[in-house]
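Human:
I keep going back and forth on a fold encoding question. Comparing notes only helps if you start from a blank page. Show me how you would write down a chain together with its backbone fold. Write it directly below this note and I will take it from there.

Assistant:
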Amino acid sequence: MDTLLLVTRYAATLIGMALLVAAGIACLRGEKIAALACVPAAMILLFANLDRVDSFKVGASSIEAKLTQKITDAQRIIDQMRHLAVNTAKSLIQLRENSNALVTSLDFPAEDAYKATVLQSLKDMDLSADVIKEVEQSDSNVVIAFYAYAAFRFASDGFLPDEKKRREFDTAYVALSDSQKHSPDELEALYNRFHVDGTKFASYMEDFRYYVANKEQRRKDVWARRETWGYGRTSPGSVFPLQ
């Protein structure tokens, strides 16, 4: 009996394959109606190998399942590309800003324009507002360091009574830890210790404090002009001429 089944299976398989080949040749010759022969050929092959088939399903639902899987795979790839784009955007922004964070010749308007372009590219990818904000704030360490250095320059570059006091202030500032330098409260305490009149820097210190708390600029227009008040263009003593 097993031998008979084996012979039957091989015979049916050969017949099914023969029908498929014949249908294929006929179709190549332009006899499109011959394509119908593929159906019985496929059925013969199927029933000849039923023991090797776990499940068989023909219908709209099976096609839908395949399409759903393809769509899921495509969405997964899109999500991976978006994730890569976000990480790349963070790296590009930080690389550009960190490499020149404390260089006075840096073109800050160009830096801001570059960051805006990167963010716009992410917006065009329909990323969520939270993700855009995350990238926008990815350079917060550079921004905070800028405010801290500006506070240091304010006192050291002209608002101390003499050279000796300035050297002492510089030494005290350098001795601070990074977390202390990046704290408006710690810097104000340093001002008080050396009797620095911080009146002209008060509004910038508020901007600093606001940014540390919110990772957003309190006065975006003032931040855009940060080269003028952060580094100054004139001699010591007039680094912060404007509020």
About this structure: The chain has three domains: 2-52, 61-138, 141-230. DSSP finds twelve helices and no strands in the chain. The CA atoms of residues 89 and 118 lie 6 Å apart.
